[in-house]
Amino acid sequence: MRFYLIIDRASSEIAGFRALTKFSNLLQIAWFKEFIVKKLLCAASFGIALAFSAGAQAADKIAVVNVGEIFQQLPAREAVMKQLENEFKNRASELQRMETDLQSKIQKLQRDGSTMKSSERTKLEKDVMAKREEFAKKAQAFEQDHRRREMEERNKILSRIQDAIKVVAGKEGYDVVIDANAVAYSVSGKNITASVLKQVK
């Protein structure tokens, strides 16, 4: 009975660990780049809106900027995606190998456990549990490190866009600049996206 309980528990935990390695799976499929773009773009747009929308109601001269359009056209976008992909590719592959090995051991328990010697079965069960814990730790560290690096790169791009907006706003005399995606409708605000894009490049 103990043998089957261990197998069931380990099998169910494998399914849970797959969620922890979502980034490793994303690194291996075609839309990984699109995933990074959306996350960086969403965070950048939100940051720009917060930085430049304060006091908009009291301002006399308002401009709008499409952060999403700027982000999509920045050469740095492709460089960041490639950098993150290369930086985490080896660790993602390692996690996939660990998961495959762990699944193989669990399948062996399920297939041969009833006919194995007690000592051999106990050894394999302990090995499964040890591999499971190691996998969980590495998967968690992977996700945390990826999130941290993604944030670092996002902040770099966001800083460049903010600096460019400040320069353009200063030259053209705007009191407030807000992200076009953060407002539902604007009549008086001039769109300075093209000028900002030219500046940030």
Automatic annotation (TrEMBL):
One GO process term, biological-process aspect: protein stabilization
Family in the record: Belongs to the skp family.
Coiled coil: 81-112
Protein's UniProt name: Chaperone protein Skp
Gene3D superfamilies listed in its UniProt record: Skp domain
GO cellular component: cytosol
Sorted UniProt keywords: Coiled coil, Signal
GO molecular function terms attached to this record: unfolded protein binding
PANTHER family cross-referenced by the UniProt entry: CHAPERONE PROTEIN SKP (PTHR35089:SF1)
Family matches, as SMART domains: OmpH
Repressor as UniProt keyword: no
One Pfam family in the UniProt entry: OmpH
